Every structure is written in structure tokens, then in C-alpha cells.
Amino acid sequence: MGMPDMVTAEDIEKVGPLTRQQPRPHKSRPSYDGSRNSNRTILTTLLMSTILFIPVFLFLITTVAPESWKGNISAWLGSEIGEDNGGKGFESESESWRASSVQGDEYLIGVGKADITGPCVEINMMGYADPKQIGTGLRQRLYSRAFIVADPAHPADRFVYLVLDTQSGDTAIRYGILSGLQELGADYADYGHHNLAVTGTHSHSGPGAWLNYLLPQITSKGFDQQSYRAIVDGALLSIRRAHESLGPGRLSLGSTKVYGANINRSLFAYLANPEEERARYNLSTEDDGSVEKDLTLLKFQRASDGKNIGVLTWFPTHGTSVLGNNTLISGDNKGVAAYLFEKSVLGDETAAEGFVAGFSQASVGDTSPNVLGAWCEDGSGQMCSFENSTCSDGKSQQCHARGPLFRANDEGTSSCFEVGKRQFEPARKLYDLLNRKPNPVRGRWVKSFHAFHDMSNYKFQLPNGTEAVTCPAALGYSFAAGTTDGPGAFDFTQHDGNTSTTSPVWRVVSGMLKRPSEEQIACHGRKPILLDVGEMHSPYQWTPNVVDVQVFRVGQLAIIVSPGEATTMAGRRWKNAVGSEISMLFAEESGSVTPTVVLGGPANSYTHYITTEDEYNIQRYEGASTLYGPHTLAAYINVTLSLIPYLSSTASTRPPNGGPEPPDNSNRSLSFIPAVVHDAPPLFRGFGDVVQDVEKMYHRGEAITAKFIGANPRNHLRLEQSYAVVEKLVSTAAATSVASQNTDGLRGSELLVKALRGKQDTSGANDQKQWQTVRDDGDWHLIFRWRRVNELLATSEVEITWETESWATPGRYRLRYFGDAKSLTGAITPIEGISSEFELIEDRSG
Ligand SMILES: *[C@@H]1O[C@H](CO)[C@@H](O)[C@H](O)[C@H]1NC(C)=O
Ligand SMILES: *[C@@H]1O[C@H](CO)[C@@H](O)[C@H](O)[C@H]1NC(C)=O
Ligand SMILES: *[C@@H]1O[C@H](CO)[C@@H](O)[C@H](O)[C@H]1NC(C)=O
Ligand SMILES: *[C@@H]1O[C@H](CO)[C@@H](O)[C@H](O)[C@H]1NC(C)=O
Ligand SMILES: *[C@@H]1O[C@H](CO)[C@@H](O)[C@H](O)[C@H]1NC(C)=O
Ligand SMILES: *[C@@H]1O[C@H](CO)[C@@H](O)[C@H](O)[C@H]1NC(C)=O
Ligand SMILES: *[C@@H]1O[C@H](CO)[C@@H](O)[C@H](O)[C@H]1NC(C)=O
Ligand SMILES: CC(=O)N[C@H]1CO[C@H](CO)[C@@H](O)[C@@H]1O
User: Fold this and answer.
1) Is 289's C-beta closer than 6 angstroms to any atom of ligand 1?
2) Considering its fold, how many domains does the chain have in total?
3) CATH code where residue 727 lies
4) Residue 394: inside a domain
5) Strand 596-600 and strand 557-561: pairing?
6) Does 782 reside within a domain?
7) Which ligand is nearest to the CA of 493?
8) Tell me: the pLDDT tens digits for 396-434?
9) Taking 60 as the threshold, does the pLDDT of residue 33 lie above it?
């Protein structure tokens, strides 16, 4: 069911874990088109709207966070953290947390995380589809985070949910992971199509050129094996780590409100939905239903010692905080939220080492993290038009959405960190509440299904009995106009016939454009067809016609794994339909527990958008990108519902494959991306030489930069390693303890920050000092940039910048660069460089 039926943080605080009443058994198939309502929902809605959200942050963090993080977190939250909180020791908290006996069923659970950072330079970035947006470095590494749940009584019943810091899931990536799992042998035989979900956080700031279909390859000059393998290999490693960590444990489920992290970017289309349907979700001015403000959190707690091994959350907001004119790789706001959560539990008694926080995307379609709205950058000072987001010139190119800290004018970087933090904070608060008062997942079944379904001509019945049909994929005119988060998602101005600016892929394929048939035009209704992608099959498919339909079920939780970006209302209808069907079909086995349904995606493939029919008829970007015509959503729902019986606790079969298997184009895709030729240092210089050194002393808050003679980072991705680190001079005692812990493949920075905790003053016994890594390129505030200085001479330069954080501790530091140079013979050799030492002292203000 929808969110109003969920236990929320506020509920838990007020009344403790809820025992839910048996849902009224549905006599007939419930309607999911928004025309019917249940009294229960209205009641819960009313109740919820009276509960005020109070953004109080947990004192727990301040008492348990590593020394070096304390100042930071208090600084962010300012006065919200009272000083008396510090006195309340964590010991007593943790005792109450241990004492609270967790009800619910035991499962096998496991989590894992691995690096998937592909080539951070010279590759077009994936998301804004702007051929000019080419990577120049790394702000934050990208990860795959894997979550496995299995049924101890039937261990083959399991699922693995991946959260990748990528724009979306993908067919070729998924095939790559599946064949990798097969190669891992018998231990991994239980994983397959039916139980693998490959979801993307929808970050628009990762490298591209790894997608299966032609359309997104046009702007990236084709496919890049290195970019593709980084994701597949990292995803596999994260699954292996999760699999190897599998052990008995319990799951707890909750929901909370997140404010200030999303708005509806297509409100004009949303308002076309029926008023009575909108009213059901219109709780207040801050939570008017135009986007979902609810974050759902699933907590993984192992049985062996009661520690939590991870959290998996769902909340919808686009990965477009960092703007289209940024060229540094990052996981955008979800990447920040995960980073902060994982940092916040370091050294925390509730959390196991290797804790993994997955911030998964939800009904993201019409959401934007740029919460100050869309403005014209044409000097007019006007907001863009409500109906079509255009400016005074009648075009959308000047229309840009503003993040909360847009005045920083830093390509969205500060806003991104802020929106990530706004997701992290309530999630962390909910985590702590669930530790004290768990809301357990109950029901000893772990079920899943997956089917391919051909959407090119699917005839089916709408709930009201009318016959409907879907059409081969097509994109409408508004697709080319793009969104307020990034105009021109497919920049046609780049393809105006001027061959010097045209993508080489476009030169090859533009002649293959097809004029849509009369039938196709009619099928798409209100959508004027710009690109008839579903009917173009050469040189290979441009977009998918075959979609992935998948749902997971554990206890009362059901997870719809959506291949497209569902809008707010589309996602609700889909979730409500699945919730009702589960309630109806499985009333006996689920007992008193109401189903909780979440939607995660874009996953497994990328089928663009999924809007309601009313939104479709408005034909803004989301409607124009709803590939299979006005009945796209209804078709997804129809197919999903027809497969729900496979989630029964007694189900032992899998659905027949509904459609033809989609193609794997990873070995036959066009590619015009040149390889690295070679690297050389300038005359009389060596690789790693410092060309611009640090100063002797800095105040905290300043940015510290050094430049080195470098080499192309594409020579070696340094996965699970780093191109750039900050080293601190510390006593050997602290350093040794770090070295001994650094065994399990975790990222250095996490271990080191942890090791530093409470070890700052241990230098007394032995006064020997040594350099210790305290930041690496996985850290948001340590930036690695690369620049080719001379193409012909093959010289290049690396710039490392540490934007010292409010929580950085004073001391003696240096910056260090790790790279790999390619010789003319093709041999690749590691290189490195070290800056001079510098002193970091307190803030200038004192
Ligand atoms: C929410 O309700 C108010 C008051 O009825 C109305 O003015 C507003 O348009 C509604 N918002 C949405 C998004 O439906
Ligand atoms: C956008 O909407 C305005 C009305 O707000 C209308 O005048 C204009 O023609 C529309 N432009 C396009 C390109 O549809
Ligand atoms: C980046 O894009 C934003 C949004 O259009 C704009 O406001 C900003 O000035 C741009 N920054 C640079 C450096 O061009
Ligand atoms: C889906 O469509 C099929 C074929 O028309 C129909 O038999 C079935 O009832 C529909 N399912 C739902 C849940 O509407
Ligand atoms: C059934 O629903 C569809 C889609 O909402 C609508 O176009 C059609 O008119 C409805 N048919 C009837 C008989 O109400
Ligand atoms: C094509 O684009 C290039 C690069 O922007 C420009 O220098 C050139 O003048 C353009 N040629 C024509 C015919 O427009
Ligand atoms: C692609 O090529 C690689 C290397 O030759 C091979 O291992 C892989 O199986 C191929 N994949 C497909 C889908 O054909
Ligand atoms: C509650 C909420 O997020 N409302 C926003 C919906 O979208 C409009 C325009 O995009 C914003 O102005 C509202 O604040």
C-alpha cells in the first residue's frame, strides 16, 4: 500500500512499534486508477497530517562519531544539538538497544560494497547527454552497494538488490553481472535473472559509454569497454562481499519525512491528475503530494552480536544536484547521503565494521533536488513558464533550476552536499529510533520474480474493461527540449548538419532515422513523435522495446524494481496496485501485517519515463519520454499484477519468459573513443614532480592545492585504491593499529578516520612519527583533476585540492599523488608525487 500505511519515525516515537490490524479482505479486484479510496487511508492520512515533523537531530552522532567528525556534524546542525545531550552516554543507549528484543523473523542477510569508478577523464558523462560534458577528474568515487536477503529454510529463495552510483541500471551491465556470477561457480548458482536487481541512484555525474542501447551512446561517441567493466566488476565484487558476509539476522522497517530535498519539476503535468486522487496525498503546504516526501528505510541487523550491518533506503529525488557544466565525477546527492551515513556510524556500537548504507532511488520521474525552482538565466530575473518551462525567447535553453545553495555558483556542488545531508539526517534519525524500537519485518518468505516483457504491441485490458495497446518506443518533441535540471537532454543543436560539431556516432546513424508509420503516430496519441526509436533496429536497437518486470518480497515488504523513472503519481498507482494484490492474494499467509510497497529504479535497463495518462497528455519532458504510449503505466501494472502469484510463500515456479530476451550489444557497439596513446614528462622533468607546491601554513576552511607532472588516469582506474590522498604526521602507535586493521578491502579513509578516533594523544610513549592517510579520493572534499597539457608531447598535469572541512584536525600534513604512465611500447608503470609539508591550524575566525 502507499506510504500512509507505514510506520513512521513519528509513529514509533509516539506509540512504539505498531501492531497492525488485519486489512479488510478485498472482495473484488481493487481499482488502482485513483478513482477509489479506502477509509483506512483517509484516516491514516488525517492522523499523519496532524503529526508535525520536527527536524531534531540525534545526539547519538555527536557522542559516538570519530573525534575528527564531531565538530563537523555539530557545525552542520548548529544549535539543534543541545550541550546536555553530550552527557548522555552512548553506553546506556546501546544497552536499551540491546535489551529491546527484536521480534520478527530471522533471515540470512549480507551486505557488500565495492568501487565501480570508471574512467574519470576524457569520457562523456552520463545523464545530461551533453557531448561537451567530458570528465576532467574525480570528486568522489562511485560504488556498488549490494544487499542480500535469503530464507534460512530455503536458501535458494533469496534476492540481491544492488544500488549503483550510476544514472540507471542497464541490460548489458546486468548480463555482464549474471555471466560473472555464473563463472563464480556452484556457490553462486542461486543467483539469476529472477532475483538480481541492478538499480542506479540516477547520478548524472558518472562516466558514460557503458549503456547497451544506441541512443545514449550517441553523445558519448559510442561504447567504452573500460567504463563498462568497471561497473560490472565492481558490482560483482560487491555481491561476493555480501554473499560471503551472509549470516542470520533480522530486518526492521520504517519511514520518515524528508523536507527540502525534492520538489516536483513538472507540477503543471502533475496537476492534470484527478483532483480527488491528488487530494488523498495533499497533507499540508510542505507535503502537498506533488512529490513523495517519505523516505523508507530497511535496517539489516545480524544475530551474532546484534550489530547492524547496513541500511537500504528509498527516497525520490533526481541525481541532478551537480549541474551539467560540472566535469568532476561524483555520486551526486545520493552519493553524499551514503558517504555521510557510512561515516556517521564509524566507531558506533550499533554498527558492524563494513557497514553499508544504500540510498536507492524511488519514484524519481518528476522530482528535482533543485528546490528553489526554475529560473531564466536571460537577465530577466523571471521564473520559467509554468506550462512549458520556457523563457522570454520561447525556448527552454536558458531555464535552469536552482539548488538550495545555488549562490555558491559552483556547478551545484554545495547544493549537492546539502541535499545529500538533508537525506542523511532523517535517515540516521530513523535508524536510531529503529534501534530502540524496532518495527520488524515478519513473514518467513523471500520471494522474487523477473520477466522480460515486449512492450512494442501489448494488448491488454484496462481495469475498467477497455481494451488498450502499447506501441513501439518513441520519443516526443519535448524530449529534445530537456528539463529544467538540464536543458536539451539530447542536444539536437549539436546535430544541425555541421559535421565538425556532430558526434561521429550520429554521422553513422542519422541516415537510419525512420519516419513513423500512421499506425505508430496514432498509437502514441498526444505525443508528436520526434524519434521513432522503437522502430529503428540498425545498426542495433536505439532504446529497449523489451522491458524488465520484477518484484521482490520479504515478509511484509514488497519492492517493485522499475526499469523506468516513474513519476510521483505513476509510482503511487503502481505501488497501490501491488499492495492491494498482495493483500488480496496472500491475506492468509501475511496474517496481521499490512504490506509495505516501495519502488526502486531506474533498474535493470533504462526505459526512460513512466507517467500517468493525464500527465502523458500534457507532453512535458516526462510525458514525451514515456516510451510506449499513453497506456505505458497501465501496461506495467497489468504485467506486474499478473505475476504477483509467483511471490506466494508456497510458489515454487518462475514465470515463463514473457518476451524475447533483449540483445546484449556490449561487444558490437560503435565506438569512436580513442585509447590513450602514451604519456611523457616534459623535458628535464620527471613524473610526479611537483609543479605547484603547497604553502607552509593554512587556516582550516581554506582549499589546499598542489600540482604534479602526471599521466592519464585511464591507464589504471585504481579501483579500491586512490589517485590522491592527504597524509598526516602521527605517532607510530596510531599508525600501527591502522595497518593491522587494513585487511578486509574496506576503503582506507574509513579505517583511518576510525583508527584516529581517540588516538590523537597517544604519542607520549614512543615519539616516532609517521605519515598516515586521512583522506583519499573517495572523500567528497578531496578533489583530483587531470589535464592534458600537450597532446603531441603527451604531457599532462594533475591537480590535487583538499577543501579543508570544518572537522579537519590541526596538524602537519602533505598531499600525495598516485598515477600510472603509459610508455610508447604500451607498458604501464606506477608513478607518484608528494607535496611539501604544511601546517593546518584553526579557522581564521578563531
Ligand atoms: C493541495 O490542496 C490545496 C488546498 O486545497 C490546493 O490549493 C493545492 O493546489 C493542492 N496541491 C496539489 C499539488 O494538489
Ligand atoms: C509555452 O507556454 C506559453 C504559455 O505559458 C505559450 O505562450 C507558449 O507558446 C508555449 N511555448 C511552447 C514552445 O510550447
Ligand atoms: C553552470 O550552470 C549554471 C546553470 O546554468 C549557471 O548558473 C552557472 O553560471 C554555470 N557555471 C559556469 C562556470 O559556467
Ligand atoms: C491484464 O490484461 C489481461 C489481458 O487483457 C487481462 O486478462 C487481465 O485481467 C489484466 N490484468 C489486470 C490486473 O488488470
Ligand atoms: C477506461 O479508462 C481509459 C483510460 O483511463 C479511458 O480512456 C476510457 O474512456 C475508460 N473507458 C470507460 C468505458 O470508462
Ligand atoms: C561548424 O562548427 C565549427 C565549430 O563550432 C565552426 O567553427 C564552424 O564555423 C561551423 N561551420 C559552419 C558551416 O557553420
Ligand atoms: C564479449 O567479448 C568478451 C571477450 O571476447 C567475451 O568474454 C564475452 O563473452 C563477450 N560477450 C558477449 C555478450 O558476447
Ligand atoms: C511541497 C512541494 O515540494 N511543493 C513544490 C512543488 O513544485 C513547485 C514547483 O516546481 C514548488 O514551487 C513547490 O514548492
Assistant:
1) yes
2) 1
3) 2.60.40.2300
4) no
5) parallel
6) yes
7) 6
8) 888 999 999 999 999 999 999 999 999 999 999 999 999
9) no
